[in-house]
Amino acid sequence: MGEVTFAAISWWCTATGQPWTWRWIPYPGVWIAVAVPTVAYLRTARLSVTRRHRAAFLAGMAVFWVASDWPLGTLGAGYLASAHMAQFLLYTLGAAPLLLLGVPGAFGERILARMRLTEGVRRLGRSPILCGVVYNVLLLTTHSPPVVEALRRSQFGSFAMDLSWLVSGLVLWLPILSPLPGGRPRSVGVRMAYLFSATALVAVIPASLLTFAANPVYEIYELAPRVWSLSARDDQQLAGIVMKLGTIPVVWGTLATMWFRWARREGADGG
Amino acid sequence: MPRRIHRHVLAVALLAASCAAPSPTGRLQGVVVEDPTPKPSFVLTDTSGERYDFAAETEGKLALLFFGYTNCPDICPVQLSQIAEVLRQMPDVAAHTEVVFVGVDWRRDTPEVIRAYLDRFDSRFVGLTGTAEELERAQVAAGVPPAVVDADTGVAHAGWVIAYAPDGMNHVIYPFGTRQSTLMNDLPVLVTMTGEDRR
User: Alpha-carbon distance A19 to A21, whole Å?
Assistant: First the structure.
């Protein structure tokens, strides 16, 4: 019988240099990262959350799972820059806002109070400039080639990168969706201006560089075994386009929703 | 706050530096051969079934010679793709360059299979094959260890690209892991090495 050692298990997706196949790879670390918060949420929030909250939280965890696990996690960790970018968008614009929507105010306060983080998170949500800076610093850092090369080659590094994307997504959405009472700017205009500037301005830099670079930027993806005969440059250009256009549906959809809600409220107040 | 801005600027700079358009340095960045060797002489069969004399067909051109096999899962597709992508960006260099792929898996790499394989990268690439003896002679002539073709363990072959400048000498090789930026720098230098202006 073959012996499976603890170290031989792939806990998290990482670059291996092995040719890509559609053979499923189990990542127990991903399952634990999905299962533990989900079970904890369902047990703790059993009585205090609505069906809508629960659906949002579970959808957020599902997006987190899809972004982290095989095949997208594997492709993003070691094969395709475009998959890496798709993961980034799923964490920051998919999983993070859904998880925040899944946490009602009182429940959020109770959880954060245990970690003595309530006031810190409330203040952070009220500081859109700080949130925008944190998000964009993490965006630029985790897309800079030396950081990608260093982190994607180890399971722990890859885990750290994925986690930092989720955290940066939570920080990004805090001024918009903070569940804490008084945990976001009061003005809808400020929130809309924040969301637009935080997601649309700085991200254009790496997206354009990836789209228009003369050579592949990331060695790890340039020299990876090819997937679907997609060349390294085409893959990188696709990554730039994904980064540039991928934010549009979520960000502009959110902005439109905020605008119409505000207009409806104003109309109701005026009428 | 200044510290945050500093990190911000650093990250942008790192990304921008990596993306900047390459500026040829005029010096070779591949693995330079200290004592350049002359172009080998061997004759194999090309993908149209004609005999192909490597030395004669590539005379006066930059020749990039690579021994691989079409079922190679990792090294061959990356090496060929790197060359194809760089040459697509440098049509002037491509016009004076001959990329020659020798299929060392004599059991499976027929002329038709090699042609179909190379067309995935660039239809101008030349594909060669031959008998086991011919292939071994060609590899020995080029100074690479002959590939080991084994039904059980697969194919073990030299993974590097050998560059012969128009002067007929091998000045540089490109092992697996060579980046496109290196090729973008080197190929324009190599095509000008005609023998009159040695490095």
Answer: 6
Residue A2 lies in a domain: no
Q: Which residue of B has its CA nearest to A228?
A: B120
Smallest Cβ distance to B8: which of A137, A231, A232? Answer: A137
Interface pTM (ipTM) of the complex?
A: 0.81
- Residue in chain B nearest A206 by alpha carbon: B15
User: Residues 50 to 79 of B: which have CB under 8 A from any A CB?
Assistant: 73-74, 77-78
Q: List pLDDT tens digits, range B98-128.
A: 999 999 999 999 999 999 999 999 999 999 9
Tell whether B178 is covered by a domain: yes
The owner of tokens 């790879």 is A25
Kindly state whether residue A8 falls inside one of the protein's structural domains: no
What is the DSSP track for A248-267? HHHHHHHHHHHHHHHHHHHH
> Are B85 and A233 an interchain contact pair (Cβ–Cβ within 8 Å)?
yes
User: Could you tell me the two tokens for A6?
Assistant: 């603890």
Q: Is residue B99 part of a domain?
A: yes
Taking residues B66-94, report their average pLDDT: 95
Domain range for A89 is 28-270
Beta strands B161-164; B62-68: pairing state: antiparallel
